[in-house]
């Protein structure tokens, strides 16, 4: 298995050409471009309806790999069909990769995802998590964090918090399927691509979740995507860790987390979140971080 | 070739086995269950050597996996019923739009609510506009034969569309009938290896299921043209089928139609009951015949017009209902005959929903009502099993 040591090791190959319909600074798009460096040309992307579905716009595509889009809730089962189909044709050297947003992953597509994971299908599932239904204009999904404002959880006189729910702990859930489950960040491409390498070499199902920041929905300057991704990791909003065979491994450890305010202030979606909301969000994050630290190197699920 | 007593579900499983599909995604539902159980058992016994039998968590996922495997060039088979077919509905359009020659057995069962396990055709006909070709079998032999023919039609490069082969739940699915099971050698002669035109391989990137803006209508039109092309292909395939297997099929099934003035139009297994009733009525001197709709999509309009050219009165017997409208096939027949110079009288009868028994007596009753209609010159739309109020 190839292991990347530094950013200089990352493959030069570009399978995502210039000229796509994605927004400038889109975390999901940058994630796909990066992922394809590790995945290589013998890859078929199985996409769930979402922002990325707009990349191949008939009769053009910015991608130099195969692509199939079926619908929103069935990327995993489509991928299972593709995987077995390719294996039956003797093409077992192809990577079958789901690239799906969080709505398609956490919510509507969860049944098919869980099914493919339980059967340990040889699929790499990458969820680009923009913490909302991004393509429809930023509505609440079950990965939207507490305190974020969305179009369907707006702040108002009756509700100053916006999203009052706490997001699903998806990596723990996927870890409980006894598959490889990991979080990843655009600010740590070496870590991200090494996780893809590990997934490629596994005989079974791998789940990698990338924080795919959304310039339009999070409402921030599109130049700040990488900075935003880095701040998310340092503040504990997006810890980098993996679970394999139930064992947790924290990939980026910090003695002390950065205050979340720096991350929140850059974005429109947390604007006007009252102090008690910030405090609740901080305590949720600290709680999760403490748990990860406590279980680091031990059985987590 | 051997004749044996098997259920409709087993006949469908045999049709699939003989076609040597590479991928069978599955999910159980009554009354289809026995079909996929049979395939699963064969798989476990090593009797499906080049097939991957897969289990998924829903019918929606079954059809999604079918799309995935077909998109990379596999021959695919699956089966479902009722609510499961409805759950697949979204993906049926996608399979047709992607022009994937999937073959699926559907075992008709009425739809909730209330729950019923018994048969009617609302589940099948609900998929009417999905772009799939739709065949409807009368008996277990035809189930097997239709599945073999379905692959030939679906995989023809002039067509490239998925096909569903329907049978009536329980009436066929769980009833033993004598079925001639052809040998693999014969089937291999009939069903050539499937060579897909546009498929994904490691060396050739292909995009499937992209967004199309103004071109959308162009793709839908191609779907329509392909379905129309299928009519000619079905006829060719039926001829070839007869040469190899000796059984003859036409676009529509005609029974005692030569001098028939009254015509009953049916689908599926109730046609057998209808034929028995017609024989008895013929003995009483009533000039009645049957037209069975075997191919629902593409719609064999010319064959239907030809068969009905001498009819004076027609009863469309629908085992389905479009609430607020009436039987689903009734307006299709009316439309087909609308442009004829002399139009027969056409009445509509809704019967047999949710397994409500289809008896010879009911068929005779309908025929007598049709004779009354011919006398009064007024057609009727009537719900046979209940009083409309």
Features:
heterodimer, A: 301 residues, alpha/beta, eight-stranded mixed sheet, 10 helices, 34% helix, B: 389 residues, five-stranded mixed sheet
How would you explain this protein's 3D organization?
The complex is a heterodimer of chains A (301) and B (389). Chain A is an alpha/beta fold. By secondary structure, chain B is of the alpha/beta class. In chain B, the strands form four sheets. In chain B, strands 10-12-11-14-15-16 form a six-stranded mixed β-sheet, sandwiched between helices. Chain B has a five-stranded mixed β-sheet with strand order 4-5-7-6-13, sandwiched between helices. In chain B, helix 6 links the parallel strand 6 and strand 7. Chain B is globular, with a radius of gyration of 21 Å. Classes of the chains: A alpha/beta (301), B alpha/beta (389).
Secondary structure layout:
The complex is a heterodimer of chains A (301) and B (389).
Chain A: H1 27-39, E1 43-47, E2 66-69, H2 75-88, E3 95-101, H3 102-107, H4 110-118, E4 124-129, H5 170-175, E5 180-184, H6 189-201, E6 206-211, H7 215-219, H8 225-234, E7 241-244, E8 247-250, H9 261-265, H10 275-295
Parallel strand pairs in A: 1-2, 1-3, 3-4, 4-6, 5-6
Antiparallel strand pairs in A: 5-7, 7-8
Helix pairs in contact in A: 1-6, 2-4
Chain B: E1 2-6, H1 8-19, E2 23-26, H2 33-44, E3 52-55, H3 59-71, E4 77-80, H4 82-97, E5 103-108, H5 122-125, E6 133-136, H6 140-155, E7 163-168, E8 177-181, H7 184-190, E9 207-208, H8 216-245, E10 252-255, E11 262-266, H9 270-283, E12 288-293, E13 295-297, H10 301-307, E14 313-318, H11 329-337, E15 345-350, H12 360-376, E16 381-383
């Amino acid at each position: 298995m190839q292991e990347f040591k530094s950013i200089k090791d990352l493959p030069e190959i570009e399978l995502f050409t210039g000229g796509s319909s994605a927004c400038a600074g889109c975390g999901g798009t940058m994630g796909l471009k990066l992922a394809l460096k590790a995945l290589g040309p013998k890859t078929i992307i199985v996409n769930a309806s979402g922002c990325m579905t707009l990349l191949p716009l008939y009769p053009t595509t910015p991608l130099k790999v195969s692509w199939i889009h079926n619908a929103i809730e069935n990327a995993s089962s489509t991928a299972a069909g593709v995987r077995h189909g390719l294996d039956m044709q003797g093409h077992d050297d192809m990577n079958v990769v789901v690239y799906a947003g969080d709505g398609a992953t956490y919510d509507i597509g969860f049944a098919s995802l869980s099914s493919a994971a339980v059967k340990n299908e040889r699929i790499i599932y990458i969820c680009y998590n923009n913490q909302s239904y991004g393509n429809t204009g930023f509505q609440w999904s079950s990965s939207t964090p507490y305190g974020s404002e969305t179009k369907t959880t707006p702040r108002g006189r009756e509700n100053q918090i916006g999203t009052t729910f706490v997001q699903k702990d998806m990596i723990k859930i996927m870890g409980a399927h006894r598959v490889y489950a990991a979080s990843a960040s655009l600010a740590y491409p070496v870590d991200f691509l090494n996780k893809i390498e590990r997934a490629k070499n596994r005989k079974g199902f791998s789940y990698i979740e990338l924080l795919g920041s959304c310039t339009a929905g999070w409402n921030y300057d599109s130049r700040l995507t990488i900075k935003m991704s880095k701040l998310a990791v340092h503040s504990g909003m997006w810890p980098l860790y993996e679970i394999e065979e139930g064992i947790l491994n924290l990939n980026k450890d910090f003695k002390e987390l950065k205050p979340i305010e720096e991350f929140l202030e850059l974005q429109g979606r947390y604007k006007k979140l009252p102090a008690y909301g910030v405090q609740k969000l901080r305590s949720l994050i600290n709680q999760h971080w403490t748990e990860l630290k406590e279980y680091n190197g031990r059985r987590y699920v | 070739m051997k004749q044996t007593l098997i259920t409709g579900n087993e006949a469908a499983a045999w049709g699939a086995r003989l076609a040597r599909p590479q991928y069978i995604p599955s999910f159980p539902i009554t009354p289809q269950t026995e079909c996929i159980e049979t395939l699963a058992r064969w798989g476990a016994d090593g009797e499906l050597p080049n097939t991957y039998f897969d289990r998924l968590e829903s019918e929606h996922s079954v059809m999604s996996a079918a799309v995935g495997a077909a998109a990379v060039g596999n021959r695919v088979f699956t089966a479902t019923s009722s609510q499961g077919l409805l759950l697949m509905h979204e993906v049926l359009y996608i399979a047709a739009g992607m022009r994937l020659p999937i073959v699926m057995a559907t075992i008709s069962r009425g739809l909730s609510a209330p729950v019923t396990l018994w048969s009617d055709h609302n589940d099948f006909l609900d998929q009417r506009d999905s772009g799939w070709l739709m065949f409807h079998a009368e008996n277990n032999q035809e189930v097997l034969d239709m599945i073999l023919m379905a692959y030939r039609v679906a995989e023809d490069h002039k067509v490239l569309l998925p096909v569903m082969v329907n049978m009536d739940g329980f009436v066929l699915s769980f009833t033993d009938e004598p079925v001639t099971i052809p040998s693999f050698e014969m089937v291999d002669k009939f069903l050539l290896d499937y060579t897909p035109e546009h498929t994904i391989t490691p060396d050739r990137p292909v995009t499937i299921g992209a967004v199309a803006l103004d071109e959308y209508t162009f793709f839908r039109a191609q779907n329509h043209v392909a379905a129309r092309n299928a009519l000619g292909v079905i006829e060719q395939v039926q001829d070839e089928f007869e040469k190899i297997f000796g059984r003859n099929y036409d676009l529509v099934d005609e029974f005692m139609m030569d001098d028939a003035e009254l015509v009953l139009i049916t689908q599926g297994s109730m046609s057998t009951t209808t034929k028995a009733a017609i024989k008895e009525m013929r003995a009483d001197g009533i000039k009645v015949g049957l037209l069975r709709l075997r191919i629902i999509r593409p719609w064999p309009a010319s064959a239907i017009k030809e068969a009905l050219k001498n009819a004076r009165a027609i009863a469309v017997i629908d085992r389905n209902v479009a609430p607020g409208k009436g039987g689903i096939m009734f307006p299709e027949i009316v439309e087909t005959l609308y442009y004829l110079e002399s139009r027969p009288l056409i009445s509509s009868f809704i019967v047999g929903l949710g397994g409500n028994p289809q008896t010879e007596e009911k068929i005779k009753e309908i025929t007598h009502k049709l004779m009354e209609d011919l006398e009064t010159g007024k057609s009727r739309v009537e719900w046979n099993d209940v009083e409309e109020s």
